[in-house]
Amino acid sequence: MTQAAVETHDLTRRFGSVTAVEKLTLRIATGEVFGLLGPNGSGKTTTIRMLCGLLEPSEGGASVAGIDVTVAPERIKQRIGYMSQKFGLYEDLTVAENLDFYAGIYGLTGAARRERLRQVIEFIGLGTRLGQLAAELSGGWKQRLALGCALLHRPPVLFLDEPTAGVDPAARRNFWRAIHELARQGTTVLVTTHYMDEAERCGRLAMLSGGHLIALGTPAEVAAQVGGGGTTLEDAFIILQERDER
Amino acid sequence: MMRRFWPMFRKEFIQMRRDRLTLMIMVGLPVIQLLMFGYAIQTDVKHLPTVVLDESRTPESRDLIAAFENTGNFRIVDHVDGRPALDRAIAQGDAQAGIVVPYDYARLLGRGTTATLQVIVDAADPLASQAAINAATSVAAVRNLLILARAAGRASAPLEARVRPRYNPGLRSPNYIVPGLVGVILTITMVLVTAMAIVRERERGTLEQLIVTPITKTELMLGKIAPYVGVGLIQMTAVLVLGRYVFDVPLTGNVPLLYLIALIFVVASLSFGLFVSTLVRTQQQAMQLSFFFVLPNILLSGFMFPRQAMPQLFQWVGLLLPLTHFLKVLRGILLKGVGLEALWREVAVLAGFAIVMIVLSVQRFQKTLD
């Protein structure tokens, strides 16, 4: 088996008396596109935030790119890319200024910086919009810019927290093409979603419900684990959601 | 170390330049405040509208009334011919003082007994009435001395106190207000602007993005406040230049030294703004908390009201405010022309305040979301 890019064991996070994530154990191999699927409040975002060092685990542990999140959360930050639901763009800066800012923050300098900026701009296809304010971009373009900003330092692991919320289907398809391209180049991608078509595009999935892991495997395996043979992923998801609401 | 400071600084600077509203507040606020405080606030009350009831109608009484007018504190707006008219004028606010010279004034004066005159003052406004009371008392005192000296056969009064109001010989309000205004404006804008700048990133979700990058807390905070140091010094320059040329406020002392100390004060205020930003969640809370801090600064620092008149407790509270110390520096350098030898204690306190605030806010600011 290849080297694990992300590993968690009994990862738990409580907010007061509420347990958002309970005893989550996962192993994600390098180069995988791994989906965290679950309804709102199932613990997806909390999990990603713990893996990025944004939240401290209450119990258990995790390592990302070989670094323990409880020991060295700051060292992880140079080795991950993170894209949140809000994209984290400065809307009053232009496309070029946003990219330039994050390049500086990730410590890129000189010729290496120029070369990397050129590559990323080409990859996300924003070359003609460099002078436009981020606020003027459509949802799809904002998403690509946010992805570009998260990629500048060539992170081995990329976390995407509901990256396509509010983005039209065509843009979403282009986005996923880019994600698979990154995975082919060896980037490990962990993505949370509640869109079924997105979940289908992941190599493997973990389905969460109420902070628990309830199914793990390829999209077809997960559907079968939740609903029995012949169930689609969408059916499985609905079964789950109804179970949660009860 | 600190290599991520510059990208942060650049970004903050571009955003500041693009934010028209903030820019207007930063430039407009000092100018408007200066004109408002400079023109409107005159603590030396002059030309109080006054009505006169002269029952004596003699050369002596006219002489006395002229003496009142010559003090510059009274402006005779009307002569009335009865108490009811005088009372009405004061009650309606047409006049704020009334001078009554009784019908036997000249007779009693000539006879060598005590002649009385009455000065009625509208004390609903204590500051205005105080000036009138002082002026009235001194008019009487001066005349008494003249009469007594003449009676004793002396050419002049036996004693005269020669008061020299040093550093502000004309006792002009702008000389007192404008230097203080530099400190007040810096306090308001610096605290508010930084508090808002961090909270805005939190509200827009960019702070979450920033804290998953390798930027350190110190780089983030210093990069954030550094552009505003420049803004503060520009504001200060605007107020000083306008003060000099519009209000004729002298720039007596070592101005470069003043800028150096102002730099420390600006950093202290900015760090306090950072500290505020670590205590609140929304821009609205940041605004409220900032004003909660600014108000005591204006009231207790000695900007408008003399600290010596305050109860001991509030004098102590005032000592905790950076503005109190900076005001001493401003007035010390601009009006008195003194240097570090007289102001090192204030400088030490300001530096201490800045360091404590930076340490506190770096400590309180967490690169996590909980």
Give your account of this protein's structure:
- The complex is a heterodimer of chains A (246) and B (370).
- Chain A has two domains: 1-79 and 155-214, 3-Layer(aba) Sandwich (Rossmann fold), CATH 3.40.50; 87-153, no CATH class.
- Chain A is built from nine helices and ten strands.
- Chain A has helices at 44-51, 73-76, 95-105, 110-124, 139-151, 169-184, 196-200, 219-227, 233-245, and strands spanning 4-15, 18-29, 33-37, 59-64, 67-68, 80-83, 157-161, 188-193, 204-209, 212-217.
- In chain A, strands 6-7-8-3-9-10 form a six-stranded mixed beta sheet, with helices on both faces. Chain A has a four-stranded antiparallel beta sheet with strand order 2-1-4-5.
- In chain A, a hairpin with a 2-residue loop joins β1 (4-15) and β2 (18-29).
- The longest helix of chain A is centred in the last third of the chain and has 16 residues, at 169-184.
- In chain A, 46% of the residues are buried.
- The mean pLDDT of chain A is 90.
- Chain B has two domains: 15-41 and 172-364, no CATH class; 48-151, abc type-2 transporter like fold, CATH 3.40.1710.10.
- The mean pLDDT of chain B is 88.
Shape of chain A, please?
globular
Total strands of chain A: the figure is 10
What does the radius of gyration of chain A come to?
18 Å
Give me the number of helical elements of chain A: 9
Mean pLDDT of chain A: 90
What is the level 1 CATH name of the largest domain in chain A? Alpha Beta
Radius of gyration of chain B: 28 Å
Number of DSSP E strands of chain B: 4
What is the average per-residue confidence, as pLDDT of chain B, rounded to a whole number? 88
Low-confidence segments of chain B, given as residue ranges, are: none
Biggest sheet of chain A, open or closed, and with what strands and sense? 6 strands, mixed
User: Which pair of chains forms the biggest interface, and how many residues does each contribute?
Assistant: A-B, 34 and 26 residues
- The string of secondary-structure elements of chain A, in order, is EEEHEEHEHHHEHEHEEHH
Would you tell me the structural class of the helices and strands of chain B?
mainly alpha
User: What's the arrangement of strands in the largest beta sheet of chain B?
Assistant: 2-1-3-4
